[in-house]
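Reminder to self: tokens first, then the designed residues, so the page reads top to bottom the way the pipeline ran.
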């Protein structure tokens, strides 16, 4: 077991390196970098995320052996009226005065020492910025995942027990319709119906807590917290029931048809004893294995539109704004952290699989 864990941990190194290298290369060709963004702000011109250096300027730059400061400044759209020294200072500030390979190596070395730098446009470290956004993402990811599993697993078991019944048919129709509805559309519908739209005004539309949260008692703080989360979590969770519910149902149906269930019935065990003592453990293997991936997916992604609609400042919105603003320290640091965390959680998922079912041995299979 220890050799398998060590091998998996060592394989994470080239995996993370490949993710960071590909992303870094792509970023080098992305137009509208941080220097150009800063120049646009200083000159009062708007620069879109798709702006780029003109082809003629690129050709002139490529054809010169050495580039003067004035020629370098001309490469940036919107740099007219700014001194070449100022442009060079901006490049040095953002670290673009060094070759790409040197910048990439320095970035990896810093990340190995857990030094993720500071945001380009905010006077705060990347770690502190992530910590600032974590409460929203933890709230959305944790409660949505618990709600999804808490409903889908019992519902899937009930559907498997009543396979082919009217209950099975109409619940399948409901969850498939919910799966087909985009979360942002459900969010808009909830806002219109229950949050000051054309009908009721039962729930708040902004923030994770109320303005007077600090003055509330503990029971009122808990109630206020869930009062603000009710609509966004509902909007995210409506479409998450179908896959897990049907996976649970099919897993139980597959186990029920196996020979050991027939043997257990022949020994006089009741249906509940067979279901929860024997079938449950085997059928839950796939569900348990999928939990870490589902949690990471809910925790780190898929909440951008919901965060925007309900004015929740979380990691999804942070990542989107960082990409648009070319805030590369935030982009690369979050990518690195989430990639490492995702690989570790995948390893934990496999180890959990082996613990639940001793018949599975990844170590022998790898050998």
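Designed residues (367 positions):
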């Amino acid at each position: 077991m220890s050799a398998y864990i060590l091998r998996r941990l060592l394989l994470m190194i080239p995996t993370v390196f490949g993710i960071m290298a590909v992303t870094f290369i792509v970023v080098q060709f992305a137009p509208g970098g941080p220097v150009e963004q800063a120049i646009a702000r200083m000159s009062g011109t708007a620069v879109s995320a798709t702006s780029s250096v003109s082809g003629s300027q690129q050709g002139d730059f490529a054809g010169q052996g050495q580039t003067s400061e004035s020629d370098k400044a001309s490469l940036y759209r919107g740099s007219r009226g700014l001194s070449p020294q100022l442009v060079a200072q901006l490049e040095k500030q953002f670290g673009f005065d060094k070759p790409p390979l040197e910048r990439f190596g320095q970035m990896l070395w810093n990340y190995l020492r857990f030094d993720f730098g500071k945001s380009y446009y905010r006077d705060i470290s990347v770690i502190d910025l992530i910590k600032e956004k974590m409460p929203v993402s933890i709230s959305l990811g944790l409660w949505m995942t618990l709600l999804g599993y808490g409903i889908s697993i019992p519902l899937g078991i009930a559907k498997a027990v009543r396979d082919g019944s009217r209950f099975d048919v109409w619940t399948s129709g409901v969850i498939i319709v919910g799966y087909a509805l985009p979360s942002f559309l459900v969010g808009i519908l909830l806002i219109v119906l229950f949050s000051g739209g054309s009908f009721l005004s039962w729930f708040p539309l902004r923030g994770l807590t109320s303005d007077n949260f600090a003055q509330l008692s503990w029971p009122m703080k808990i109630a206020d917290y869930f009062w603000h989360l009710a609509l966004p979590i509902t909007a995210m969770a409506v479409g998450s029931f179908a896959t897990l519910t049907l996976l649970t149902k099919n897993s139980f149906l597959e186990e029920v048809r196996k020979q050991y269930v027939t043997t257990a019935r022949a020994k006089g065990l009741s249906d509940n004893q067979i279901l929860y003592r024997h079938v449950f453990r085997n059928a839950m293997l796939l569900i348990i294995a999928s939990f870490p991936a589902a949690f990471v997916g809910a925790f780190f992604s898929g909440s951008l539109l919901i965060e925007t609609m309900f004015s929740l400042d979380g990691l999804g919105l942070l990542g989107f704004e960082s990409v648009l603003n070319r805030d590369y320290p935030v982009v690369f640091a979050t990518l690195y952290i989430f990639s490492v965390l995702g690989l570790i959680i995948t390893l934990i998922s496999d180890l959990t699989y082996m613990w639940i079912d001793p018949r599975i041995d990844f170590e022998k299979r790898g050998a």
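Residues 73 and 83 are 8 Å apart (CA to CA).
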